[in-house]
């Protein structure tokens, strides 16, 4: 290993650990990827209406995120089965769906002519707030690790 690759290898090794900070970084990366999936699905489904687009986007990105969290974020594939992860983590995601749906409804009242991108930005912002709380619940309850 060279002097240049040693710090990279060290950083990657630390990111693969089960420490809270490493899990939080992986959680954010999975969240970012699933938010991209959400936005793409939301924009593709927008002609069906914002609420339908939100529900389909949330369902698609949630199933993906739950599985990635189970396997990558929390290294829980050997402790928690796919169905259990989808059921329990999906229940937590339902809270997020309610929050994003309320945000979209409020946006429709406050700014009825808001663009699709403004609506998506509102949803992503609400999702980020809910995401922090979801990380704690997933880490401590669903995937059975210590909370801190």
Automatic annotation (TrEMBL):
Q: Which UniProt keywords apply?
A: Membrane, Transmembrane, Transmembrane helix
Its predominant location is membrane
Where is it located?
Answer: Membrane
Pfam families linked: GtrA_DPMS_TM
| Listed GO CC annotations | membrane
Topological type in the membrane: Multi-pass membrane protein
Q: Which residues form the GtrA/DPMS transmembrane domain?
A: 26-143
Kindly indicate whether the keyword Membrane belongs to this entry: yes
From the record, give the transmembrane residue ranges.
Answer: 24-45, 89-111, 117-137
Enumerate the Gene Ontology biological process terms: polysaccharide biosynthetic process
- UniProt-recorded name of the protein: GtrA/DPMS transmembrane domain-containing protein
User: Which species is this record about?
Assistant: Rhodococcoides trifolii
């Amino acid at each position: 290993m060279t002097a240049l690759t040693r710090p990279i290898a060290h950083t990657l090794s630390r990111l693969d650990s089960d420490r809270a900070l490493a899990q939080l970084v992986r959680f954010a990366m999975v969240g970012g990827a699933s938010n991209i999936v959400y936005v793409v699905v939301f924009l593709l489904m927008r002609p069906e209406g914002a609420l339908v687009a939100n529900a389909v986007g949330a369902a698609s990105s949630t199933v993906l995120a739950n599985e990635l969290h189970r396997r990558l974020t929390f290294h829980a594939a050997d402790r928690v089965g796919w169905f259990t992860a989808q059921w329990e983590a999906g229940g937590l995601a339902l809270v997020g769906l309610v929050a994003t749906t309320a945000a979209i409804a409020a946006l429709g009242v406050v700014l009825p002519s808001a663009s699709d991108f403004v609506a998506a930005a509102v949803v992503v912002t609400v999702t980020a707030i809910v995401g922090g709380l979801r990380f704690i619940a997933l880490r401590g309850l669903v995937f059975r690790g210590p909370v801190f």
